[in-house]
Specification:
single chain, about 350 residues, alpha+beta, 11 helices, microtubule binding, nucleotide-binding, microtubule, Kinesin_motor_CS
Length: about 350
């Protein structure tokens, strides 16, 4: 069992918005190529290196292919626990990177070129299952963490809080969550839209569609290799039959983190302010865990996964037996400089985390 690095973080820099351009914000984040991003502003001049950097002109397809997402899908089929999560300031493009346009619905689908990492991974997963000749059983579960409560986004009726448990064999898990089987791209796309429409969002000064919860969509992949078995009365005909190989069980988890935000900047008050404080607290706990995991093995202290529901559910992905891809989303605006630098430092620490897949 050899310690290896997870997929190193990738960075995506969104374009300046129309309101930022009208306001006269300067572009202070630039991609230099070769996985390097440069931040240049008054009293700040820093360069960061990552596995990949996608600038404002990068297509959704380029992000999928260049981030290593296709390899994660293949590893999930091979029985590994794989996770991809997007993080960054509110309004930095996390949900767009994972899902595509927020305006899409069953009656108004997104243009194929705008689909995010999720839909492209679903298509890749089903394509791989057909090309490998594997007998795959696929199911999906979809949860959100809202104000430190875990809620099922696929269960009928109003979302209700579910208990988060611990066991030696499963680690942290959500009790009574619904898992839905699917066999087609249309079916899983419908589940994604159904759950996303139930997720908590609100509008504030920085983002008209701000996610107020962390969302986790998990694809469960159970596979058994298939081998040909000749039919006795027709020598040239083969039919697939299960091999003697043990079945593999992998997962592919997509985590859309709510964005970090400063209440003063967003103008939030009342319920929005409570939500923001809970979001920032859980992101702080996540950052603390990553900082400790980034230390050399001999210098690590206790990793406080129990500090939040988010870190409990991501414990295996961050420092356990999983393979994790992080996509750091940042704004190029001079007004967001402080949050952008914080996100880039956050991602730099994550590069040093190792797991045992």
């Amino acid at each position: 069992d050899t310690s290896v690095s997870p997929s190193p973080p990738a960075v995506r820099v969104r374009p300046l918005t129309c309101s930022e351009t009208r306001r006269g914000d300067r572009r202070v984040v630039h991609s230099l190529g070769d996985g390097t991003v440069h931040v240049s502003a008054a009293r700040h001049d820093a360069t960061f290196g990552f596995s990949a950097v996608f600038d404002a002109g990068a297509s959704q397809e380029a992000v999928f292919e260049g981030s290593g997402m296709r390899q994660l899908v293949e590893l999930a089929i091979d029985g590994f626990s794989c996770t991809v999560f997007a993080f960054g300031q509110t309004g930095s493009g996390k949900t767009y990177t994972l899902m595509g346009p927020l305006t899409q619905s069953e009656t108004r689908p997104a243009a194929p070129g705008l689909l995010g990492l999720m839909q492209r991974s679903f298509a890749c997963l089903l394509e791989q299952s057909r090309s490998r000749g594997s007998d795959l059983a696929l199911s999906a579960s979809y949860l959100e963490i809202y104000n430190e409560q875990v809620r099922d986004l696929l269960s009928p009726g109003p979302p209700c809080a579910l208990p988060l448990r611990w066991s030696k064999t499963r680690g942290f898990y959500v009790e009574n969550q619904l898992s839905v089987d699917f066999e087609s791209l249309e079916a899983i796309a419908d589940l994604l839209l159904q759950g996303s429409q139930r997720r908590r969002t609100s509008a504030h000064a920085l983002n008209r569609h701000s996610s107020r919860s962390h969302a986790l969509l998990t694809i469960h992949v159970r596979s058994r290799a298939m081998r040909g078995a000749r039919v006795s009365h027709t020598p040239l005909t083969w039919i697939p039959q299960p091999s003697a190989c043990p079945s593999k069980q992998g997962t592919l988890c997509f985590v859309d983190l709510a964005g970090s935000e400063r209440v003063k900047e967003t103008g939030s008050s009342g319920e929005l302010s409570v939500e923001a404080n809970n979001i920032n607290r859980s992101l702080l706990a996540l950052g603390h865990c990553i900082s400790l995991l980034a230390k050399p093995q001999g210098k690590r202290t206790h990793i406080p996964y129990r500090d939040s529901k988010l870190t409990r559910l991501l414990a295996r992905s961050l420092g356990g037996s999983g393979i994790t891809l992080m996509v750091a989303c940042v704004s190029p605006s001079s007004r967001c400089l402080s949050e952008t630098l914080s996100t880039l430092h956050y991602a730099s620490r994550a590069r040093r985390v190792t797991t045992r897949p």
